[in-house]
Specification:
Distance between the termini: 48 Å
Structural class: alpha+beta
Number of helices: 3
Keywords: 2Fe-2S, Electron transport, Iron, Iron-sulfur, Metal-binding, Transport
Shape: globular
Pfam families: Fer2
Bound molecules: FE2/S2 (inorganic) cluster
GO molecular function: 2 iron, 2 sulfur cluster binding; metal ion binding
CATH architecture: Roll
CATH class: Alpha Beta
Strand content: 25-35%
Largest sheet: 5 strands, mixed
CATH topology: Ubiquitin-like (UB roll)
Strand order of the largest sheet: 2-1-7-3-5
Domain 2Fe-2S ferredoxin-type: 7-99
Cofactor: [2Fe-2S] cluster
């Protein structure tokens, strides 16, 4: 198995801009973004806090450890934790605060 293949990963923000980074299959999307000098929000880096949430709209991602901060329905909807998400194909991921806001249900409604 080759753990070093690089997948083209498009990060897209709701405001309309995009960045393409190369993410190795053995590194998290968050680490790949940092290597590309792109700052994404994060907290725990262990899959527990959901600060780094993105949503996969195309491609395949696997979590390197259990994504404790996400519920099954979040996973089914394509949400991933970028601190532990490793690409398994070229992919496109929505990032930014809007994605995180969608994830956290509003307790006032
Ligand atoms: S930084 Fe906490 S879940 Fe990713």
């Amino acid at each position: 198995m080759s753990g070093s293949s690089v997948h083209e990963t498009v990060l897209s923000w709701s405001a309309g801009h995009e960045r393409v980074i190369g993410a190795r299959a053995d590194e998290s999307v968050l680490s790949a973004a940092e290597r590309a000098d792109l700052a994404l929000p994060f907290g725990c880096r262990t899959g527990a806090c959901a600060t780094c949430t993105g949503r996969v709209v195309d491609g395949r991602i696997e979590h390197s450890r259990p994504p404790r901060a996400l519920k099954d329905r979040h996973l089914a909807a394509g949400y991933v934790l970028l601190c532990i998400a490793e690409p398994r194909s070229d992919c496109r991921i929505e990032v930014g605060s809007d994605v995180q806001t969608e994830l956290v249900s509003n307790p006032w409604k």
